[in-house]
Amino acid sequence: MDFPEGEPESGLGTSLGRGIVKRVIYPGKGELPLFEDGTKVIFHYKTSKLDEAETVLEDSRTLGKKKSMELLIGKQFKLEVWEDCLKTMRRDEVAEFTVDKMHLVSYAPVAQKLRDFALDKSGQTQGSHCCGMAQMSEAGLGYPDLDEFMKNPEPLRFTFQILSINSPGQYKKDAWAMNDEEKRAILPILKEEGNKLYQEKEYEKAAEKYAEALGCLENLVLHEKPNSSEYIELDNLRIPFLLNYAQCKLLLGEYYQAIEHCSSVIEKDDSLVKAYFRRGKAHVACWNLDEARKDFKKAGELDPSLAGALKKELKIIDDLEKQKDKEDKVVMQNVFQKMVEH
Predict the structure, then answer these.
(1) C-alpha dihedral (130, 135, 141, 142), degrees to nearest 10
(2) Integer CA distances (angstroms), 301 to 82, 262, 273, 304, in order
(3) Residues linked to residue 30 through DSSP beta bridges, in sequence order
(4) Residues of the chain with pLDDT under 70
(5) Tell me, what's the pLDDT at 175?
(6) How many CB atoms lie within 10 A of CB 262?
(7) pLDDT 10s digits, 30-60
(8) Distance CA 69, CA 175 (A)
(9) Pick from 192, 176, 65: nearest CA to 116
């Protein structure tokens, strides 16, 4: 496809230049925003090939969590052409942009990060902002179509639907966009909001608040020298958030995440009863009965007053083991019977 130089469309706020062709599907409303640095744009996106079938590579409306994308203008989003395109759009506008491969050097690693987040395949906990290039190993990006794009780049078509455009000061900053002082200040607020949601049995939303706080602390810790007093102080602040997050995951039935985060707590402080008790319950749910028994035993050693509660948990383990023994016996009898028949 040829991409003529053309004249920049008047009133768009930025010249898209060579290799980008815009087609407005729905014109949107109001004046074109100024798009000063820090403006938050929330939008849906669809990425398509230019083949006859118009093969769709990603669509935020159907991919994984089916969540919209957020982008902060001027914050060095790695796929720069997206920011250039979005800055030509008005509120509620829908438009498609056909983009030459010369603008798509970073498309594949950015798409990988966005897909991983949407499909819960990354450890990211701070929203859908793509802060850096994905690390590309010899094994590839984990998506055959993106690996193929890396080998054979081609033009793509991006369709954007603007949901909202918010100037700086009109929205609450995400954790990754805050400075250190703001991150520290928001920690007690996130804890209070998370606890309130937990009391209201909104466990998934509560987990998001605790995860946001953990993201703030993770970033703050990176700025300190390991094992310094400031580092240790911040690292210890993670513990209550990790415990609360693990409890939410336990109640949501996400047992392996509960085990993982309780284990993180125990690595930091092996005297915390809640961590052993919650990890024990998660192990039971995963049929890791020996591990569960060990955790409940340790919890009892640390807090003898839990003897009554732990007796009930151990009774559950005993019952499950008996049930498993019966099931195993039936299976072995069936196997033996089949051997005899043959």
Answers:
(1) -90
(2) 57, 18, 9, 6
(3) none
(4) 1-15, 121-139, 171, 173-177, 325, 328-342
(5) 67
(6) 29
(7) 999 999 998 999 999 999 999 999 999 999 9
(8) 16
(9) 65
